[in-house]
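Reading group handout, session on sequence-to-structure problems. Before we discuss, look at one worked example. The prompt was deliberately terse, the way you'd type it at a terminal:

> structure M18 family aminopeptidase

The input record follows.
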Amino acid sequence: MASTPFNAELITFLDASPTPWHAVRSIQERLTAAGFTPLVENESWSLQPGAGYFICRNGSSIIAWRQPQGSEPEKSGWRLVGAHTDSPCLKVKPQPELVRKGYFQLGVEVYGGVLLNPWFDRDLSLAGRVSWRDEAGELHSSLIDFERPVATVPSLAIHLDREANSSRAINAQTYLPALLSQTDEKPDFRQLLAERLKADGETGVARVLDYELCFYDTQGAAEVGLEGDFIASARLDNLLSCFIGLKALIDAKPGVGQVLVCNDHEEVGSLSASGAQGPMLKQWLERVMPDAEKRNRALSVSMLISADNAHGVHPNFSDKHDENHGPLLNKGPVIKMNANQRYASNSETSAVFRDLAEKQGVPVQSFVVRSDMACGSTIGPITAAELGVPTLDIGVPQFAMHSIRELCGSRDAEALSRVLTPFYERAKI
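And the output record:
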């Protein structure tokens, strides 16, 4: 049982979101229940001051917002929170069927910077999006989730690989095909998907044409530890930030313009129609503020908080952190800084966040990568460069980033949400 209602809802969200498409569906459901109105990009919009709306692109990216109140929104600007819906995983190849020694396997492609070792010997299921044609010749797309364990990637016994604990490298092409069953004939994977669609209630399925499917660990999210200090789950990076931003937006009172943007494809560079380096956010902004001068004036007094999890200092590997910048779990959100602009934080945006956190009684930590190590990045610098909006990079500290099962503190997510809510309400940056 979760220790707080916030964590109980978070765990439900994580378990319901095995892929970016499922995550966006979960976000849509919560927004609709909170009174936000869905809009479609190829239709005209009639927007009312203070009202909430959302749009989706590719089914895997979403922008939710409240229209600003007041006659001159360009003077108050927008308060934006950004996160990403995708996580590193194993994706099924287009022609994946393999039959070796009587075993049916699916070939996989590595999506993003996956920590591969933890994927072995897990109870895996399949979920994603399937495109199909019905008996009348019409095309459809549906979300699919097998839910139960249907596959595993078995390890090789140590007796046959004596170097497994010292020097084995994982060959993604040969070591990772997932094992599904025993068979004498090669199954038709698309036909298996068609049968699953029919079992899910889809009628008239004639042929599955294509799919985007991810394997995922069926072990659910949970609070763990003697005192429940931690949350263990798949996809904490970065569904945790999506949920935190969502809760803050829903809880915020209308006033200035308030935006939550959750993009897909961050883990592979963000360069796509629905990624942060694509046109989605800019095109949305041009529609809600069509006057270019007013839009640019608004951006100059706006602020984006890019929320993406931070590297907590690992007690077994503390030397991997700068000695003065090792964030601890359950000690508050982390401001991420980098002199080479891998993070977009600066002293002014950091000061705004520190001021908000102090007023909420939430401690703040800092992360700077060791000077002799390379630094990762986020959607923060990308969005800042695309829009020219002042930006801050923050995140909840976590362990095991990009593993099949990650770990964060059980008190940090709610603490960050308590800071983001007044950020959405802040009248002046």
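Points for discussion. First: Residues 49 and 69 are 5 Å apart (CA to CA). Second: The chain has ten helices and 20 strands.
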